[in-house]
Amino acid sequence: MKRVTAVLLFVIVLLSAATPLHAQTVLRLSNWLPSQHPLFEQTIKPWTEQVTKATDGRVVIQLLAAPLGPPAAHFDFAANGVADVTFGIHSYTPGRFTATLLAELPFQTESAEYLSVAYWRVHQRYLAKANEHRGTKLLAIFTHGPGQLWTRDRDLSSMQSLRGSKIRVAGGFAQDGAKALGVIPIQAPVTEVYQVLAGGIADGVEFPAESIDSFNLTGVLDRGLLVPGGLYNVSMFLVVNAGRWSKLSKQDQDAIMSVSGEQLARTAGRTWDRADADALASMRKAGKIELATPSEQQMAAIRKALEPYVTKTLQQISAKGIDARAAQQELQKEIAALKARGGS
Predict the structure, then answer these.
(1) Which residues form the signal peptide (predicted)?
(2) Residue 287, SS3?
């Protein structure tokens, strides 16, 4: 009997040593960007490691080896539980998101960091009431840098000279903005932009400077128009499936949010700012893309053309029960305060 008891105790000790004190939760993340893209490499991937550290290993984010589908499907992947965690672009899902258009309006700031942090704060105060991320828990919201116009064999000295050009845009405000400027907006997945330009389907693209480098477009473009504050911005999300989130302990939820929210928005914004600066420096050094800024006359024409669409967008947001003008003013106030304090 003593021998049997000793054997049982030995087995229990072995099992105890092999079993973690806390059950580990694995959340699967689908990534659709190239693995070397700055947003993935410098923001999303480090965030997954921070989650593990913040939860003392109780929650692990598993990076899937390949995306589960196209970029536009990633919000639905999280909402429907196909993936546990996803990130993506709001305007890739037309009709689902309206309040988030606030961050996409033109001329807001040169800094993705300032806009992203201000956006998170204003979203929590004003925009969250629209409940547009249903089916998920919103972990972070942010933008890329100022969206600019890039073309091949097109005169950028006036908006009149650009009329009729076919320009690939991301959707959202950029779609309306392109129409306002007299160009023909073309929709295509970001992963297919090179083929669209190289094949002559489009004459140009609206992108932040970073994306010209990340998607190897230098060889199919020769000019860029750098509009102060950008012609548009793109609003992005990081979400987790609501059901999976609800099964986490309050302790782990709080730990995850401690490395998400405003902190992640700031990190993402800084990543875009660095990448934009590096891309522009590289372009100037290589000399293959001619960079120009609008004249005062051209800038006045751009503002005049876009203003009705800015008003239309604010009206769409207001229809969601949000005081869009107040939210816009708050966004600008936050951006100005962040700039004055150097981002803190």
Answers:
(1) 1-23
(2) coil
User: Using the 8-state DSSP alphabet, how is residue 320 labeled?
Assistant: T
Q: What is the pLDDT of residues 127-173, one digit of tens each?
A: 999 999 999 999 999 999 999 999 999 999 888 888 999 999 988 89
User: What is the end-to-end Cα distance of the chain in Å, rounded?
Assistant: 69
Q: What type of residue sits at position 39?
A: L
Phi-psi region of 56 (alpha: psi -120 to 50; beta: other; left: phi over 0): left
- Per DSSP, what are the bridge partners of residue 166? 184
Topology (CATH) of 148-232+284-340: D-Maltodextrin-Binding Protein; domain 2 (3.40.190)
Reference 71, options 182, 184, 211; nearest CA is 211
Query: For residues 40, 44, 49 and 51, what is the CA-based torsion angle, rounded to 10 degrees?
Result: -170
Q: What are the DSSP E strand ranges found in 195-254?
A: 204-207, 223-225, 235-241
CB 29 within 8 A of CB 61: yes
- What residues have CB less than 8 Å from 44, skipping those under 6 apart? 29, 31, 33, 87, 238
